[in-house]
Design brief:
Blueprint (H helix, E strand, L loop, with lengths): L14 E8 L8 H6 L9 H19 L6 E4 L7 H14 L2 E4 L7 H7 L11 H19 L5 E3 L5 H10 L5 E5 L5 H6 L37 E4 L7 H4 L9 H6 L11 H12 L7 E8 L14 H20 L4 E2 L2 H11 L6 E6 L8 E7 L2 E6 L5 E6 L25 E2 L16 E8 L2 E4 L7 E7 L14 H4 L7 E7 L2 E4 L4 E11 L4 E12 L3 H5 L3 E9 L14 E6 L10 H5 L2 E3 L4 E6 L6 E5 L3 E6 L4 E8 L1 E11 L2 E12 L4 E10 L2
Parallel strand pairs: 1-2, 1-7, 1-8, 2-3, 4-5, 5-6
Antiparallel strand pairs: 9-10, 10-11, 11-12, 12-13, 14-15, 14-21, 16-17, 17-19, 18-19, 19-20, 20-30, 21-29, 22-24, 22-26, 23-24, 25-28, 26-27, 27-30, 28-29
Helix pairs in contact: 5-6
């Protein structure tokens, strides 16, 4: 069953910006095997080169006839083709298309003869080879056009590569720098053969830091000098839950996902997806973004994804026609990559987050997810699980993560997670132990309900941060003010619809409000009991509601556990915690107590230990392998902080707070991220 796409005529938004990017990839991925019809491999085959250039011309025509300009990202192979070079020059003069340079499309006869390899992912080469390849490709580009490009890109570009390009070729201001959630899920759906892992990055444009491409820069000192854009605009639910290559605004992604009517060749999901990106302007100060990055391999004359060439062509023509129609209606602005980079820098501040309140438009589930991304974190909140945080990446660490041959991460460019429900279970587990999630449990008379079981919906709002001490509640500085930016820092607020929690003798109506304070690396969560109802008046008056706010975490980039033995769990109370005798139970847990304060430490040894501290000011886990400190702080009645060590079958850690609630009362916690040391 398909949904009707929701175009709203006459509705005004600030800007819906679209980048349409084509690459004349003379030797497209996969296409040689198809074009060769079983012949011995020959990437210089004339039929392949001719067909590839013809398809590129068709793609350009689809855009131009709908009044759309493109960015032509020349590939290394195309720079050896006089017709491709001439075509780029012609379209630059005639249509205003930008001539850029992509680091995709490296494989060609000239490249393989020089580098003696079939590798084609620039980020996987050694740094020595990366530099040599960049010099070759940029040098050949200058030879063809007489100038250096203002845009470049790949599926992924590691920080060291971006820094080198910006230093060597300062004209570059924009780059395609990552592919959203292209990790183990994509690997498994490519028959365990797609050795490119780059989960954990932004889904929308950002300014990458000099330390790590995925992590946005927090200030000018961290600024890599470019604006990064994602490789395709993905469905922020379907892509996260499944294979992202099936769910993007590239029309052939939709065909690959079989999300179309095979009788009528119609695909309303494609238009729904484009419109949902338009909708995100409501959460980003009137700005939204969308992109298509297309090579000719997707429109092979032999057909692709069980679809004939005629359908491949129709889908691309229809996609461009929809963008063209939006432009004519004044709902869309088409920009080249370099134009967009200038616009983005004028529009956004360093600490201003990217927000997305996303709803399911594919399966009809009414599922709703909120995504938040700034220089300190990326977080995903699932309203089908009561507003639980189901994905958390600590960008605050700005983790130095070199990628490629000669580094510890040859293929794995992902930014590590602390919470990831798809790779480390989440709330629902198969047998024993716990999965990673940030949620709460409501308890009464021995009964317990986890908010992960309470579906709800969220409403987004913003407010200026009027109290300069707002961030101090989390024990953190306001980095937005620290950076000297003129724009007013804001709170982004998710107000969840109340949920009814039913116990045997009473019902608790509880509301959650989540506040993301700009420039802090902190998430505030308020739980308020709006009402307690009971058929037995005495039960209501004697209601003893206990709340357990918890985070179960770990670290990693895949499904497989990492060594947790370097982690340390801490619960502390008092400003000046000092060593003391402590209780026997605390000593057994590896605890230190003091007179002015108390500090309990548990070095992670897979011994399933736990400790609780009444009135704790902070509970913490130090995660040295990803240079991150994650903590919780709390304001609430009868609060007690606790920490739990996992065990070998469930190698997680837990930090949390318990407390008491009655009607109209609020229990508040902060989840805080800091860089270790």
């Amino acid at each position: 069953m398909f949904l009707l796409h929701f175009q709203r005529k006459g509705e005004t938004m600030d800007k819906f910006v679209v980048n349409i990017i084509h690459r004349p990839e003379m030797v497209p991925e996969y296409a040689e095997k198809v074009t060769g019809h079983g012949q011995a491999e020959d990437i210089g085959r004339k039929a392949l080169l001719t067909e590839s250039l013809d398809i590129f011309k068709t793609q350009q025509e689809c855009a131009h006839k709908n009044g759309l300009k493109t960015t032509i990202e020349m590939t290394y192979a195309s720079l050896f083709n006089d017709e491709a070079v001439a075509l780029a020059k012609e379209h630059h003069e005639k249509y205003g298309d930008e001539i850029g340079l992509t680091l995709l499309g490296l494989p060609c006869k000239e490249f393989r003869e020089k580098y003696k390899t079939k590798d084609f992912c620039i980020w996987m080469f050694s740094m020595e080879d990366k530099k040599a390849i960049v010099q070759d490709v940029f040098g050949k580009f200058y030879e063809c056009f007489g100038f250096y490009p203002e845009s470049t890109g790949s599926y992924y570009m590691d920080a060291e590569l971006i820094n080198y390009i910006k230093e060597k070729y300062p004209s570059v201001k924009c780059a395609v720098a990552t592919c959203w959630e292209e990790g183990p899920k994509a690997y498994h759906t490519c028959n365990n053969s797609w050795y490119t892992f780059m989960d954990g990055g932004p889904w929308a444009p950002w300014i990458p830091s000099r330390q790590n491409t995925h992590a946005p820069a927090a200030n000018e000192a961290e600024d890599s000098g470019i604006v990064a854009i994602p490789h395709l605009s993905r469905d922020l639910i379907a892509c996260y839950d499944g294979n992202g290559s099936n769910f993007g605004t590239h029309p052939q992604n939709v065909l690959r996902g079989m999300i179309y009517d095979t009788d009528t060749w119609e695909y309303p999901y494609l238009y729904n997806l484009i419109d949902q990106y338009r909708y995100q302007a409501r959460f980003n100060n009137g700005y939204s973004y969308n992109m298509m990055f297309v090579g000719p391999g997707w429109m092979n004359k032999m057909g692709r994804w069980e679809a004939p060439y005629e359908l491949l062509l129709k889908s691309y023509e229809d996609g461009c026609a929809y963008y063209g129609r939006l432009k004519k209606e004044g709902c869309l602005i088409d920009m080249t990559m370099s134009e967009f980079a200038d616009y983005y820098r004028a529009k956004k501040s360093y600490t201003e987050p990217e927000c997305a309140l996303w709803r399911d438009i594919l399966y009809g589930s009414k599922k709703q997810v909120f995504w938040y991304c700034d220089p300190y974190m990326r977080a995903g909140v699932n309203m089908d699980q009561g507003g639980a945080i189901v994905d958390l990446r600590p960008y605050v660490a700005k983790l130095n993560w070199p990628v490629g041959i000669g580094t510890p991460h040859i293929q794995d460019a992902s930014y590590p997670f602390l919470i990831q429900e798809k790779y480390r279970a989440g709330y629902f587990t198969h047998y024993a132990g716990e999965g990673t999630v940030r949620s709460a449990k409501i308890c009464h008379n021995g009964e317990e309900v986890d908010l992960c079981l309470c579906r709800t919906k969220a409403h987004f709002s913003e407010e200026a941060i009027s109290d300069e001490n707002e961030a101090d509640a989390a024990g953190l500085k306001n980095a937005a003010a620290e950076s000297g930016e003129k724009k007013t820092a804001k709170n982004r607020i998710l107000t969840l619809d109340p949920v009814d929690i039913e116990f045997s003798d009473l019902t608790v109506k509880l509301q959650t409000v989540m506040t993301f304070t700009e420039g802090t690396g902190s998430i505030r969560i308020d739980r308020k009991v709006l009402e307690i109802t009971s058929e037995v008046p005495s039960s209501k008056s004697a209601a003893d509601i206990t709340i357990n706010e918890y985070m179960v975490g770990c670290y990693g980039t895949t499904e497989y556990t990492e060594d947790m033995s370097s982690l340390t769990l801490i619960a502390e109370r008092g400003a000046n915690a000092s060593a003391g005798e402590g209780t026997d139970a605390e000593k057994d847990a590896g605890c230190n107590g003091g007179t002015e304060g108390k500090k309990i430490e548990i070095p992670y040894e897979y011994r399933c230990r736990e400790a609780s501290l009444a009135g704790a000011d902070r509970v913490t886990c130090i995660v040295p392998p990803i240079e991150t400190v994650v903590s919780m702080t709390c304001e609430g009645r009868d609060k007690a902080g606790y920490v739990k060590e996992g065990y070998a079958f469930s190698p997680m850690f837990t930090i949390g707070y318990t407390g008491k609630l009655c009607e109209k009362e609020v229990f508040t916690t902060w989840l805080n991220l800091e860089k270790a040391n």
